[in-house]
Amino acid sequence: MTANRQMPTAAIRHDWTRQQVLDLFAMPFNDLLFTAQQVHRTHFDANRVQVSTLCSIKTGACPEDCAYCPQSARYDTGLEREKLMKVEKVLEEARAAKAGGATRFCMGAAWRSPKKKDMPYVTEMVRGVKALGLETCMTLGMLNDEQAKELADAGLDYYNHNLDTSPEYYGEIITTRTYQDRLETLDRVRTAGMKVCAGGIIGMGEGEQDRAGLLVQLANLPEHPESVPINMLVKVAGTPLEDERDLDPFEFIRCIAVARIVMPKSHVRLSAGREHMSDEMQALAFLAGANSIFYGEKLLTTPNPETNRDMQLFNRLGIQPEEYHQHADEAEAEAELSGRIAEQQQDPYFYNAVK
Ligand code: SAM
Ligand code: DTB
Ligand code: SF4
């Protein structure tokens, strides 16, 4: 079987069937990775990875029942609840993230949805973080139209809201909000003019059908999310998923590769779970088309690899952090990227299987 026969183009499609995506999952591993890497190289410089840093602006005591989450008030995970952080403290953390090399600052709150009284604070955070020259992202739960507009007006670049899994498996994981609720929030984010960050979690006991179902949902949105976080479940003691069985690492890598193929222009983020991944597994994820990470020693409440280890890994792999051209002319940025892609295609080892 050749990669060409399975996946002839890197075209942007919104009509994926579950069977087509399952067929991608079923490809021999080497064919799948080769195809994903080819698709990746038609839209990205393959040696650049976008770097985001997370900050938990409001921790714990969440009313929702997400079975994976250490922040749900329903599970005893020993987490100390914290009130909404002061704006100045958030900006301090953002400055440190920028100094450490991040280009995007992602602020997360353990809320079902923001309350009216919270909005002036979170919009102030957006303005302050933007003024530091960082891209901004927030994940605050479900939004109504007004809240989406307020965030967009404050200049928020990205809103993260994950679908988490397939529509069929979803009810095993969360009962306090529906899949449809999530799709509606994503729609409001898009309508308000923000970029969408939406992905899911792998390793929650779901099957390949569900992984395919999640990716079909994401790829068949009217526009692909610009950012697609693929999290590997972080098993936290006290949550219902604490004893979930370990996932075969190759199954996780397959997921990244299929996400890359079905959403060719999106940044696919190798998200939670890196702490438990070897350097070799992370290198495979980059080869499969992952081109973004969370950087910094903490995710929201759980550990992430030490920044030194990440920098060493980037060095060993010849990966450079993606730059952020604030206010740069889009055409100029595009031209620069095209130049880098053309350079990569001049490489004697480049073989264009996508043609
Ligand atoms: N409360 C908001 C919400 O759920 O929309 C925002 C914060 S919530 C922690 C953001 C995302 O983190 C979740 O949708 C889930 O995908 C991810 N997440 C939470 N706990 C996780 C875990 N233990 N392992 C992997 N991903 C996790
Ligand atoms: C996403 O998809 N993963 C991030 C971010 N979006 C907000 C969160 C991961 C959380 C992992 C568990 C924790 O640290 O609490
Ligand atoms: Fe709350 Fe978000 Fe955690 Fe669900 S994932 S329990 S909504 S913080």
Q: Would you give an account of this structure?
A:
It is a single chain. This protein is an alpha/beta fold and 355 residues long. It has one domain: TIM Barrel. Helices cover 41% and strands 13% of the residues. Helix 2 (18-25) crosses helix 9 (208-219), helix 3 packs parallel to helix 10 and helix 4 (87-100) runs parallel beside helix 5 (119-131). The two termini are 17 Å apart. The relative contact order is 0.17. Mean pLDDT is 91; it is low at 1-6. Bound molecules: S-adenosylmethionine (SAM), 6-(5-methyl-2-OXO-imidazolidin-4-yl)-hexanoic acid and iron/sulfur cluster (SF4).
Rg, Cα atoms, Å: 19 Å
What is the strand tally?
10
Low confidence ranges: 1-6
- Report on the biggest sheet: 10 strands, parallel
What shape does the CA trace take? globular
**CATH architectural group:** Alpha-Beta Barrel
Assigned CATH superfamily: Aldolase class I
The fold-level CATH name is: TIM Barrel
| Proportion in helices | 40-55%
Outline of the structure:
The chain is built from 13 helices and ten strands.
Key phrases:
355 residues; alpha/beta; ten-stranded parallel β-sheet; 13 helices; 41% helix; disordered N terminus; binds S-adenosylmethionine; binds 6-(5-methyl-2-OXO-imidazolidin-4-yl)-hexanoic acid; binds iron/sulfur cluster
Topology overview:
Blueprint lengths: L2 H4 L11 H8 L3 H15 L4 E11 L28 H14 L3 E6 L9 H13 L3 E5 L5 H10 L3 E3 L6 H7 L5 H13 L3 E3 L2 E3 L5 H12 L7 E6 L16 H14 L4 E4 L8 H9 L4 E3 L12 H11 L2 E2 L8 H17 L9
Helix pairs in contact: 2-9, 3-10, 4-5, 5-6, 9-10, 10-11
